[in-house]
C-alpha cells in the first residue's frame, strides 16, 4: 500500500500542532500555578475542586459565626454580671428597710438610692452590641426593648425570639436571651409566695412572710385571701381564708377566732402570721410568685412608691 507524501506531511503538521497546544497548556499551568484552567481539562477534577471551594467557604463562614457568637455571648455575660450586681445592691437596700425606726426623711433617701439603682438597671436592659443592636430585643435588634411607663414598670417592645448562629454543619447555638425572659419573668419555684395587705386596710394588722411547711403541694401555687370580720356575739375579731383561684372563691376556713401572732393555716402546705389588730373588712392576700408581678422594674417602682408615702405619726 502506497502512502501519499501529502498525508505524511499532514500528519506531521498535526502532531506538531498538538505538541504546541500541549506546550501552551503546560506553560499556562506553570504561570498560573493551576492544573485546571477550564472544566474541560478534567471534568471530574473540576467537580471536586468546586466541592472543595464550597467546603472552604462554609468553614470560613463557620469561623466567622463562631467569632460573632463569642462576642455576643461575651457582651451578654458582661451585661448580666452588671445586672446581678445591681440586683444584689437592691436586695441589700430592701433588707435595710426592715428597720421600723426609719422616718419620712430616711425613707425618701432610701427611695432616691433605689431610683438610682433602678435607672442603672434600665440602662443595662437597653444595652447594645458593637453594631448598635439591642441585645435583649429578641429579633427586634433595632428597637430599644424597654421604655418607662408613667404609672410604673416598663413597656417591652422586643419579642421572645432567640437569636441563633450555626457554627458547624450540625451545630447551632443560642447567642442571646430576650428581655422578656431576663427581666419580665420569674421561674416557678424560685421565689416564695408573695404576701400583701390591701391598700384600703384601716387596722394595724401586718402580715409576715409565707412559711412553706410542705413543698410540692399543688395548692401552694394558688392565690389566697384572708378577710377579717367581727364575731356578732363577742365582738372579737375573726378571719376567713378563701382560695381565690376559683369563681366564686372557695372557702378554706370561715369566721375563725383571731389571735395576733398565731399562724394562719392556708389549708395546704403554707401558713402566715398576722400581727397587730386588723379592722373588720381588712384583707390580706398570698399570691404565688408565678402569678404575681414578675416585672422586676414594676416591683422596684412599687417599693419606691411605698417609700415616698409619709408615715410619720401613722401607726398602721
Task: Please give a quick description of this structure.
This protein is α+β, with helices and mostly antiparallel strands. It has five helices and 13 strands. The strands form four sheets. The chain has a five-stranded antiparallel sheet with strand order 5-13-8-9-10, with no helix packed on it. Strands 6, 7, 11 and 12 form a four-stranded antiparallel sheet that branches. The chain has a two-stranded antiparallel ribbon with strand order 1-2.
SSE arrangement:
Blueprint: H1 5-32, H2 43-96, H3 104-125, E1 146-148, E2 154-156, E3 164-166, E4 172-174, H4 179-183, E5 194-197, E6 206-207, E7 211-212, E8 224-230, E9 237-243, E10 250-257, E11 263-265, E12 270-275, E13 283-287, H5 296-307
Antiparallel strand pairs: 1-2, 3-4, 5-13, 6-12, 7-12, 8-9, 8-13, 9-10, 11-12
In total, the number of strands is 13
Alpha carbon gap, first and last residue = 132 Å
Strand order in the largest sheet? 5-13-8-9-10
Rg to the nearest angstrom? 37 Å
The tally of helices reads: 5
Note the beta-strand portion: 15-25%
Give the biggest beta sheet: 5 strands, antiparallel
- Share of helix, binned: 25-40%
The shape, in one word, is elongated
Element-level helix/strand string: HHHEEEEHEEEEEEEEEH
| Sequence stretches where pLDDT stays below 50 over 5 or more residues | none
Amino acid at each position: 500500500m502506497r502512502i501519499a507524501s501529502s498525508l505524511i506531511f499532514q500528519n506531521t503538521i498535526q502532531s506538531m500542532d498538538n505538541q504546541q497546544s500541549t506546550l501552551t497548556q503546560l506553560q499556562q499551568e506553570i504561570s498560573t500555578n493551576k492544573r485546571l484552567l477550564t472544566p474541560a481539562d478534567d471534568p471530574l477534577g473540576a467537580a471536586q475542586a468546586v466541592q472543595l471551594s464550597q467546603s472552604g467557604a462554609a468553614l470560613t463562614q463557620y469561623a466567622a459565626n463562631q467569632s460573632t457568637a463569642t462576642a455576643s455571648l461575651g457582651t451578654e455575660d458582661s451585661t448580666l454580671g452588671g445586672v446581678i450586681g445591681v440586683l444584689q445592691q437592691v436586695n441589700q437596700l430592701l433588707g435595710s428597710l426592715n428597720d421600723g425606726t426609719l422616718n419620712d426623711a430616711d425613707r425618701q433617701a432610701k427611695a432616691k438610692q433605689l431610683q438610682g439603682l433602678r435607672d442603672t438597671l434600665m440602662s443595662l436592659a437597653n444595652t447594645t452590641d458593637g453594631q448598635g443592636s439591642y441585645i435583649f430585643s429578641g429579633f427586634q435588634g433595632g428597637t430599644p426593648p424597654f421604655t418607662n411607663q408613667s404609672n410604673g414598670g416598663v413597656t417591652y417592645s422586643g419579642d421572645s425570639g432567640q437569636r441563633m448562629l450555626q457554627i458547624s454543619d450540625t451545630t447551632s447555638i443560642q447567642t442571646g436571651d430576650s428581655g422578656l425572659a431576663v427581666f419580665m419573668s420569674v421561674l416557678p419555684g424560685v421565689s416564695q409566695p408573695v404576701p400583701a395587705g390591701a391598700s384600703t386596710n384601716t387596722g394595724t394588722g401586718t402580715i409576715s412572710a409565707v412559711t412553706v411547711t410542705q413543698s410540692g403541694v399543688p395548692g401552694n401555687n394558688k392565690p389566697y385571701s384572708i378577710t377579717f370580720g367581727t364575731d356578732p356575739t363577742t365582738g372579737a375579731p375573726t378571719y376567713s381564708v378563701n382560695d381565690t383561684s376559683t369563681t366564686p372563691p372557695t372557702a378554706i376556713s370561715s369566721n375563725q377566732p383571731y389571735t395576733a401572732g398565731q399562724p394562719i393555716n392556708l389549708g395546704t402546705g403554707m401558713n402566715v402570721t398576722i400581727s397587730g389588730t386588723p379592722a373588720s373588712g381588712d384583707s390580706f392576700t398570698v399570691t404565688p410568685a408565678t402569678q404575681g408581678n414578675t416585672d422586676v422594674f414594676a416591683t422596684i417602682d412599687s417599693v419606691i412608691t411605698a417609700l415616698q408615702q409619709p408615715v410619720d405619726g401613722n401607726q398602721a
